[in-house]
């Protein structure tokens, strides 16, 4: 008898659905816009100068990019300045957020995950893939758990051959 005839792939036969967060990674370029470059002497934002910058800057350079807006200087920047930047960037940029690249990454994943058809996971046993070739933020794992918990039979984390149970619906 051929040994391969007796081989059964238990993982494939288990009915588990592997959910790979990497598939929801936005391929667009990420960049930081640091408003410190608009500060007068690195200390304060002068409205007249900033409004002139807003008028004359080439906003098209942000086309298709994902932008995190920050201020790395120890300065008080009025909220409206960030609002003006977002208003001018958004028609061109894919995404504009206030905060770090980590916050930007979390927002990108959250938006991508919000578009998932959850019906296809109804009553299923799902493994959220743990190993990734790209860095997936913890926020994405939390978000997919929040989205799937109401509809799935169970959620596990890891690889189908080695999982950590996260949730199991009580029937």
Account of the protein in words:
This protein has 5 helices and 7 strands, in the order H-E-E-H-E-H-E-H-E-H-E-E. The radius of gyration is 23 Å and the shape is elongated. By secondary structure, it is α/β, with parallel strands linked by helices. The protein folds into 2 domains: 3-26 and 107-168, no CATH class; 30-93, no CATH class. The strands form 2 sheets. Strands 1-5-6-7 form a 4-stranded mixed sheet. It has a 3-stranded parallel sheet with strand order 2-3-4, with helices on both faces. Helix 4 runs parallel beside helix 5 (138-148). The chain has helices at 10-13, 47-56, 79-89, 101-113, 138-148, and strands at residues 16-19, 30-34, 66-70, 95-98, 125-129, 154-159, 162-168. A hairpin with a 2-residue loop joins strand 6 and strand 7. InterPro entries: DUF2480. Pfam families: DUF2480.
């Amino acid at each position: 008898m051929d040994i391969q005839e007796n081989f059964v792939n238990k993982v494939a036969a288990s009915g588990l659905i592997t959910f790979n967060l990497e598939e929801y990674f936005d391929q667009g370029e990420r960049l930081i816009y640091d408003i410190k470059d608009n500060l007068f002497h690195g200390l304060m934002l002068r409205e007249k100068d900033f409004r002139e910058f807003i008028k004359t800057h080439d906003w098209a350079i942000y086309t298709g990019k994902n932008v995190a807006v920050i201020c790395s200087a120890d300065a008080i920047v009025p909220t409206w300045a960030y609002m003006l930047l977002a208003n001018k960037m958004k028609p061109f940029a894919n995404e504009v957020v206030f905060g770090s690249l980590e916050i930007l990454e979390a927002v990108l994943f959250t938006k991508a995950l919000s578009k998932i058809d959850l019906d296809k996971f109804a009553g299923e046993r799902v493994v959220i893939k743990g190993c990734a070739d790209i860095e997936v933020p913890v926020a994405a794992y939390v978000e997919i758990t929040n989205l799937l918990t109401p509809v799935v039979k169970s959620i596990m984390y890891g690889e189908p051959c080695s999982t950590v149970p996260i949730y199991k619906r009580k029937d």
